Amino acid sequence: MNLERIPTVYPTENEFKNIITYISESRIRRLGKKYGMIKVVPPTGFKPPLSLDLSKFKFRVRKQQLNQLNLINRARLFFIKQINNYLKLNQIKVCKKKYFLVDNNKDEKFKLYLYDIYISVLKSYNPYITWDKLLILTRDHRNKALLIPSLREVEKNIKLWKCLAKQFDNIPLSTLKYYFDKYIKDYYSYIHSQYRQNLSTLQYNDDYPISLLSDNEESELEITDEDGDEEGNAEECVLCHEYDHIEDLITCNSCKKYFHIGCINDTKGEKHIENTIPSSSLESWICRNCVMGNGYYGFHMGNQYYSLMTFLEVTDSKRALHDDNEELSKLEKEFWQYVNDIDNTKNVKYGADIHNSVPGTISGFPTSNYIPSSQKDNIKEYMSYAIHPANLVNLPNSKGSLLPLFKDTISGMTIPWVYVGSKFSTFCWHMEDQYTLSANYQHEGASKVWYSIPDSSCTKFQDYLVSTTPDLFLRQPDLMHHLTSLVSPDILTQNGITCYKAIQNPNEYIITFPKCYHSGFNSGYNLNEAVNFTADFWLPYGMSAIDDYKISKKQCVFEMFDLLITILKNYLGGKYTDMFNESLVRDSYAILLNRFNEMNKDLSRINDTWNLIPTFIDRAGLRSNMKMSENMLKSGISSIKNNYDYEDEHNEEAQLYCAHCKTICSFAFVVHQKNGILTVKSRKNLNADNFQNWARFVTYVYKKRPTTDFDILCLHDYLAMEEYETGSISSHNENDELYILKDMEHIKNLLYDSGDKIDKM
Q: Which of 217, 303, 302 is nearest to 255 (CA)?
């Protein structure tokens, strides 16, 4: 592929010891902004020994079928599966072909895909599909979706069919109509009827969905619950989540999930009503999720654990290094041929996201808690690498990073993950969580090929993806966060999307900058390691991720407003003065002030209209030990000390997420009672004034009882929901409860004092 290469930089030994400061220099930032990535070659003397305990380092592999990673291929395969599920449900002969070879006016054969016909019809009635427009629809409380016209309207639109025939390589109009009538027509009517009945949402939501392309004989993901039992094996109705009345259960012939017959036929979810499914259909019945399609796709993880040696044997990999030469170019062309060929089912194995916990298996860099026997005679040099700031174990907490202020350890972000590649194993298009920077270091092996789309082309890239497969993004708004989709850089550049390339070899770093899409593949066996980090200039990106994630309904990783408060508190207290430059402080102040004003407006609307008396939970005190202000105490808002010592396996603090937009409820949340008062039985073990108990309670209820009668909502979504459901915000459910998580008076004073000090800078 004739793509421009990203720049390579060569820091001096002193610059490399302050790697984040070096990356933050204006000239390096300009390169990162333009290309999305840079390659960093360490000083000549920097050659850390690989420090894995190979006798203990074991990992499972991710199985990747390359042709299914191609986004348009996957959409086409999904559509065939959905049509066939519809045909099976109606006991009609299924379609066994992925595409049809038809004659065009050039006396050549043209591959005609049923999905392409279907989606072209939809796009003709939805001509301006963009990323923002489509994803906003998924957030709308009115549950809008794409305009799907009636079958009659589509059939009589002669202009449409002439345009489509021309679009599909000038195939005869009669040929195009033939395939639509034979394979798509009835299914299209079904889809239209579902949307017309406001049933565009799925029949049920599933925490652990199964892809329509998965092998039904093995689970897509091996998930276990807190007791170690595999999820999905019990005969539990996925609609009511109860195990009783087994005699009334029916199994979907596609996903193999269980349903009470009464739950299927009753839109209100009540069981034991008259069975309206014909007995002749019981064996072939398929749930609506499998007919409409859930859009989900995930990698299957193998059960076997590999050592590096057994992985090399199984993947027939060699430790030879491919430099940037003709051989690597041939491999690159071959890789994309596998990805783009819908008929080729080549599978590869990738030891990805390896996060072991035993010393000697966590990182390939030297660490103080594991010293290989081969290094004991060279302990001084070994330890110099163990404490070096460019060691990925240390990088997230090195000088210039803001991550230490979060006081959380997040596996894969602040703790490195290891990657063991094989020939053609791939990492798909994605951005880093919360738009952080990332560093990837190659310890040994064959070249890793990277592609980048910088921030400047992200919107155009996202619009292209949505315009290509809008139905998938309706089903999965956070699709590009799943790391399962590839589009060839050649296709992207043809559509005006800027794309660059990099070749990474051993002892080289690839640094990705904020909001850079990147992907790539391995040319053979290699061993890499990656971690995230931040710098001052990341802060605005981290904040913008909050709004972007609300649209795509992805959960944030960091509680950003706690970070802003911490920065301003330490700035006022004179702590970490070398960490907080003027730009960072001003950005923190401006962002927090804006959000504080917005939150006060929302609280005022709720208090003035409904007179809800809020309960204060000392959420902020978990970190900053803030004291309740005298004004808040006088206002009647009580402060309850946290009396529950909570700590999960990664030392991550619990968060409360909005049930609708999935954002972290930073300042306040509303417990919205959907079906009356939350029962005393449900709340009997809950101390409602204890944040950690709330977090655990909500997590448990949403997981075990997804049909619960309450939702946790952020103020924005609560106000939007009430305005939609009642036509105004003048009325609400009198049982709804408002909780305040931060001392607003304290933040007000903090902003006042910070602004005063900033003005004197």
A: 217
Please give the DSSP secondary-structure letter assigned to residue 182.
I
Q: Do both 41 and 91 map to the same domain?
A: no
Does residue 284 form part of some domain?
Answer: no
Classify strands 737-740 and 615-617 as parallel, antiparallel or unpaired. Answer: parallel
What digits encode the pLDDT tens for the residues 131-146?
777 666 655 544 456 7
For the question of whether the overall pTM of this predicted structure is more than 0.90, the answer is no
**Structural element, H or E, at residue 615:** strand 615-617
601, 712: one domain: yes
Q: Is residue 537 part of a domain?
A: no
User: Could you tell me the residue range of the domain that residue 338 belongs to?
Assistant: 8-48+305-355+388-418+435-474+488-531
Q: Max alpha carbon distance in the chain (Å)? A: 85
According to DSSP, residue 478 is labeled T
Q: Are strands 8-9 and 417-421 parallel, antiparallel or unpaired?
A: unpaired
Place of tokens 């005393």: 680
End-to-end CA, the chain: 51
Extended beta strands in 35-129, E state: 37-40, 62-65, 100-103, 109-112
- The residue assigned the tokens 């959960």 is 555
Q: CB burial class (10 A; 0-12, 13-18, 19+) of residue 305? A: exposed
Give residue-wise pLDDT tens across range 412-431. 678 899 999 999 999 999 99
* Contacts for 135 with CB less than 8 Å, ≥ 6 apart: 466, 473, 477, 551, 552
Q: Please check whether residues 162 and 25 belong to one and the same domain.
A: no
With tokens 């902004």, the residue in question is: 33
